[in-house]
Amino acid sequence: MLWQTFVHYWHELTYLTLLHILVALPTMAWALAIKKDSTSALAWCLFIFLAPYIGFLMFVALGYQQIHRPVSRKQQHRRAFRESHVPTAGESSPGAVVLPAPDTSWEGLAGLALRFDAFPQTTGNHIQFFYEGQPAYDAMLEAIRNARHHVHLEFFIVQPDASGDLFLDLLTQKAREGVEIRLLYDAMGSYRLHHWKLQPLREAGGKCNAFLSVNLLRRRFQINMRNHRKILVVDGKVAFTGGLNIGDEYLGKVPRFGFWRDTHLRAEGPVVASLQRIFIEDWDFAADEHLKGPAYFPAPEQTGPHSVQVIQSGPDQLLKGIREIYFAAILRARKQLWIATPYFVPDAGLLDALCLAGFQGVDVRLLGQSHPDKWIPYFASRYYWADVLDAGVKVYQYTHGMMHSKVVLVDGQWASVGSANLDNRSLHLNFEANCLIYSPELVAELEEAFRRDLEHSTQLERETYGQRPLTSRMMENACRLLSPIL
């Protein structure tokens, strides 16, 4: 019977086989040509071979990690921008070669960060932390109300809901008052933010642009390589950054997420120029508008006692700066390493470094989600939890709501706060920005917030976790196969 079926349909089967080969082989060669990581290349080749048509479409949408036309253009654009935009007295230049004084750089990380396209370490800053959405929004809206010259916003997500309307209405009002308004949002993250929603702001004189917009006619359809940064700069004097986007969920008003736990900061002082510079480079790429001069970079003022350094990373960099700094900080930990991240999908090097710290007796604590917003990264994280638990790392699940904070704390001396998660998507695929903090006083405040979070968390026991159901293990193994693109 089977043989008769084969004989009857052998023409169709031959054509399907040839079509399978014609689709699969070129796509596999394509994957091998652009994938540097052997594990990622093998995973893609197997996927494409087993499901060539779906694999081809998935690779077009997700496969690129470094070089494609828009990102290559951003590399060239950034080089030309920096050559034509010489920093003034108020600015700091990324990748500067002057090393900071040894007594202001914990374990030499500030000098190392300079080699990864970070901005110079700055002193004399005032920093205020926010641990949930409402206080942060209140402070951001107040800063916008007080704007006199310009307001620059760069967010991954701007939702067209009540929170989004609140910001857009205020921005429109300030634009009518003559304040320069520039809003840069990610085309994929803010896909619900339609043009008509921004029309009142544009009519009032505000400027809005999408970052790496999706355009099928220009062969732009990339889910990867998104602008995940969250930056607000007002008059070049006040800046905000961290993990919060703009939307009702960040205020805990969406039942699916519940209470939203995040970490955001307000900065005054010389560090503001670094965040301004990131915005202006991204804006120049997206809008082709050159901004410079004292109106955007006023003379820096010493406003506080804290030492802060800004580091950026993205697929337009050969070396992923934030990933390398995370790696270096983990290796330098001697007593304490506390990490809060909603998505824990580390590459092999970061996983080895964390396990080594655990084996060496460092107090390593990893705080993640209990109520996930994205199930595939969550199950992939669970796969890696088993490895770090075996190394003596303490793993906690936040049970009070949605854990979205991105914080790394080391030895009471150093901290990182920003937009980058401890996953491949943040560290290899997205554009991110973090503040590196060299202030024991600020680190102590973040540690106290971390301790409060642990009071609302459940610690995983190694033995109990090892007895989780087979179905859970199978799901974790399946999801971790997608780790190169998570």
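the 2nd protein, sequnce then structure:
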Amino acid sequence: MSTPLIHAQPEGGLIFATRLPGSAADFPTAENQALWDWDDLTPDPAKPIWAHLDRTKPSANMWLRERSGLDNHAAELMLTQSTRPGFWAVEPGLVVILRGVNLNEGAEPDELISIRMWIEPGRMVTLRSVRFQTVADLREKAMQGQAPTTTGAVLAAIVTGLTDRLGPVVENLMDLLDEVEEEILADGHESSNRAAELRQRLTLIRQQSISLRRYLAPQRDALASLAGEQHAALENRDRSAFRRAADQTARSVEDLDELRDRAAVSTDELRARREERIGRTTYLLTLVASIALPLGLITGLFGINVGGMPGVESPAAFWIICLGMAVLSAGGIALFKYVRWL
């Protein structure tokens, strides 16, 4: 039974495949359907192949497990559902799993999606569930025959692209936090609604920074280890690219730590101001109650309506009581000012 041919299209599990550094003939057009045989995806050190697969397609999963020639452990690492960034040496190649920003329409700003990669001297296999802009850019270069010529260089280009796109996301969070901090400093007596809005924005910034750091911290470590990996598929310039990416990712992790701490401090500041407002209001209410308490006692006493109440027959009694209450209130206010309670 002959091996079925597949189109280099997502319906068949193979998004595209090309011999490095690429060729327009490897990609489907109206005139050229760019048919590939699964058996064509074999290592060739003289002219390495790059195959980009869709992990959501059963045909791609079956090929990786049964016909790719990968070790079972390598295939399972490539196809596992839950992944954290890292790399594993599995002869004769490396499994590298990284995360990148999801730049597709409708994606959350802190959503990081995974790309799984198998690299050996004559072949590179990349596996994804969601479209990657970095891979799309490399595909355009491959269509023009301008992609890297080695699998290690392709990996370095993907690592660099993913890392470069992470920087603006972290910088955007820093800018958002700067805006919130400026608003907090500019308005020390903001309304409760305004304070609630600022707290919500701070909470969102903290959540996004924690979510990003969850994957970037292990990715930093993976890239640093990859920079020291002595593998036949990697050259010194590739390791240099990994080292630069590791340093850049480390700075992003440090910025995320700073974001988290600054957002926590700003949240505490808003909470302290709210408690201060509540305390000030409670204090004023207590002073008012202290002044009003003896007045309530007097009005209650003269309102009990029993026999023997003084001044019942006197037309000036009401005004005398009002004057006495005013004097008592003024005395209470003067006393509070004297003891610096007001």
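The longest strand covers residues 93-101. The longest helix spans residues 236-301.
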